[in-house]
Amino acid sequence: MNSSKHTELANHAWSVADLLRGDYKQSDYGKVILPFIVLRRLECVLEPTRDAVAAEVVRCKEQELDPDYFLPRASGHSFYNTSSLTLKSIVGDAGNAAANLQVYVGAFSPNAREVLEKYEFAQQIRKLDSANLLYQVIGKFTDLDLRPEVVSNHNMGYIFEELIRRFSEQSNETAGEHFTPREVIKLMVSLLIAPDGDALSLPGVVRTVLDPACGTGGMLSAAEEHIKSYNRDATVEVYGQELNPESWAICRSDLMIKGQDPENIAFGNSFSDDGHAREKFDYLLANPPFGVEWKKVKDDVEYEHTNLGDSGRFGAGLPRINDGSLLFLQHMISKMKPVDVKGGGGSRIAIVFNGSPLFTGAAGSGESEIRRWILENDWLEAIVALPDQLFYNTGISTYFWILTNRKDAQHKGKVVLLDARDQWVKMRKSLGDKRKELGDGTGNKPNHIGDITRLYAEAVSAASDPKHALHAKVKVFDNTAFGYQRITVERPLKLRFELTEETLAALLASKPVQKWAEERFLPREPELAAKAKARRKLTEDEEAQFRKLADAEVTVLGDALKPLLGSEWTTKSEAQVAVRDAMAKAGVPGPTGAPFAKAFRDAVGVRDAEGEVQLLKGGEMEPDSELRDYENVPLGEDVEEYLKREVHPHVPDAWIDHAKTKVGYEIPFTRHFYLYEPPRPLAEIDAELKAIETEIQALLGEVTE
């Protein structure tokens, strides 16, 4: 079937929109048209075996046999319908169209019925009936000849995908969430599968493909189509999982229409309810939602992380709660096939991310630990930067991450960074936030997809050859180049000591002084002492009395120290001696002990670059938390040498707290491709401003004439 025939059939189905206009929003047309086209296709597929199924229904009733076993065999498909009704007979009885259509749908096998239920088809039937549109809509679809001998499964898939595309473009609300632009999918699949071209050409080849956030199934369809472009006889089994009921129904319908097993598309959340647990796949690809929180499945994910560790999917780490992108990647990695001793097996992964997973999270964070796990296992093959404004619901820059556990020799221990941000053409008409597209060589557009795929294939040689035309667009790094040591640089706490009104007030308000005051007066107040000892709540009056007595003792201590106001000491010991002497002179047995000594230093000590270095119990210098700094040192570099070279020339007394050193990983993609552009000369800018000023004056002159 040629493309004009696809378009003709799609246009016929789309013409139903004319009937729906006014009663339905544009974004809701698909809720009617898609399930009806699924229903019509299923009816056409089942037509040749209707009589056989009817006879089998009778036999199953008479012999009390399991219909779910025998009826699919009679229909020749994984689904069936036991009703004698057809869409044509239903439309012939317009007065009972709604009731008959409900009966007809209810006679489908559970797997087909479930798909229609996810479309909320019963609700659409009622709405169409109340608007007196139902029999007209049914009539439109009875005219569609979708028999397999007229429209093959493969071509039916094209028609269905064309309708999905049209509905997605009708609504910016749904487009970005459930639909990835076709040319983006094509490039993604090319980069994922191209290295395996020779293996896919072998006779009898079988490949499995998984998309754990499959939406309407566009990526799965593209992957199947691409694999079959190498070998039309290849067997491609596609699997997916989707959380949105309508998207799930569309994807499952697509598989039913194409003759694939619809049971391969699981419904539910991939994190909390893995629909393909313990299964492994040859190819995995996904475009998970950007920046979507995973709070709803937090308990399930954290339980698996804590209790299963590396035996589960999320052992490497957990990203922040507001972005589950890296959870999808860990989920996909868990489904890679192992590589056997001969180098066979293994899997390839492609996933779309925004920039956040490249660098978000400091050393030791969940994101950094996930990147570390991926790079230290040598799974990351490449990252490809795409143009911005490629997607329907976001204009931000996006990236393909390509991973595999069976790298070839030239990629082992390496990561390719490929900059394709300038590979785009402007669209004639924007669709939501999508203003750019990748050309494929058709329609007088450049073949961006082919060019990027070729550069990807020769990335290692292009990066090492300065004469290569696209040398500047690709770089190759060792895995360890993205690792760093996060060191904590400490400097000693240096203090001088002074007693002012402020520092004295801080000292008197400290806990050790307050406790000393209580110990002074409580022996004289046995009732209050008994209550305080038993931790019983004081009455309001008792609380006021308690506070008054404590304040009186604190005032006595304060009066003893007031003669020292304005005094300064260069060492802590001098300050302590002066305070003890003042208390002794006033006859006040003031507070003592380590807690008071610390409170005294914290209250009276003032940071001073020329002050006394404070020491800990063991004699080590006490670090000043306010002067603490952090440095990222490349992985493998001696941190002490780094300290001597980069830090000591400025602060010679600094040291590294090795107990706090952490290893982190980040991929600063844009930094590696940054090109400095010097500002334009001032004379050039000045001349341009004068030219604009002259132009404005001329325009104003025209207005005032």
TrEMBL record:
GO molecular function term, any single one: methyltransferase activity
Pfam families, per the entry: HsdM_N, N6_Mtase
Residues covered by the N6 adenine-specific DNA methyltransferase N-terminal domain: 9-141
EC number of this enzyme: 2.1.1.72
Matches recorded under InterPro entries: D12N6_MeTrfase_N, DNA_Adenine_Mtase, DNA_methylase_A-5, DNA_methylase_N6_adenine_CS, SAM-dependent_MTases_sf, T1MK-like_N_sf
CDD domains: AdoMet_MTases (cd02440)
GO biological process: methylation
UniProt entry keywords in alphabetical sequence: Methyltransferase, Restriction system, S-adenosyl-L-methionine, Transferase
Record field: catalytic activity: a 2'-deoxyadenosine in DNA + S-adenosyl-L-methionine = an N(6)-methyl-2'-deoxyadenosine in DNA + S-adenosyl-L-homocysteine + H(+)
Annotated DNA methylase adenine-specific domain residues: 153-429
Gene3D superfamilies to which the protein is assigned, alphabetical: 1.20.1260.30, Vaccinia Virus protein VP39
Cytoplasm listed as a keyword: no
Family the entry assigns: Belongs to the N(4)/N(6)-methyltransferase family.
Protein name from the UniProt record: site-specific DNA-methyltransferase (adenine-specific)
Species of the source: Streptomyces poriferorum
